[in-house]
Amino acid sequence: MVVCGLACWRCRWLLPLLLGLAIIMGIIALAGRGWLESESEPYVQQASLWESCTRGEEDLNWSCESLMDYGWGRAAAATYLVGFVILVICFALAVIAFSIEILRFNFVRGIGGLLFVVAAFQIIGLVIYPVKYTEDIPLTGDNMFSWAYGFGWASTVVVIGCAFFFCCLPNWEDEVLGNIKPTYYYSSPERAPYLN
């Protein structure tokens, strides 16, 4: 029977897998048009990280304006995008780090530090966007920050969790590499009369 705890060598691909999941959620956030949407019918407002679209109640065509015309729009997009690029680099470094037999634990801790930088960039972008959007863009009807914006936060939360694990992983170096001898529990015959 093989027992695989949180920090064992056989489970080394869990962290790169979680980083891959964070990348997928980041792609959805970058490409999604659901950063802001109308909460109920008529659906007259819709926005992505890149543009804001509105339409009349009877109109079927969306009229869009680029958020890159605003300084805060460029700042929000740039900070989230820089964080995403560093996340992709961290994913590649994690795959390389866990592919080699002799794991370099200082290297792993460095990936954790970079992931905290990723989280900082993404949080800055995710905070700038709603604050400045609601100040500068006139909103029509009831609106909500929607699914694509949620994927951006989900990616950030996964990155923060992975950053902690990457930074703490060197503390379990012996367990991960299998350098600890197994502990056997033995009871003497006097203590276990039912064994006779």
From TrEMBL:
The keyword Cell membrane applies. The chain crosses the membrane at residues 12-32, 77-98, 110-131, 151-172. Its main location: other. GO terms for biological process: apoptotic process; cell-cell adhesion. It comes from the Eukaryota. It is a multi-pass membrane protein. Belongs to the TMEM47 family. Keywords: Apoptosis, Cell adhesion, Cell junction, Cell membrane, Cytoplasm, Membrane, Transmembrane, Transmembrane helix. This is p53 apoptosis effector related to PMP-22. It is found in: Cell junction, Desmosome; Cell membrane; Cytoplasm. GO terms for cellular component: cytoplasm; desmosome; plasma membrane.
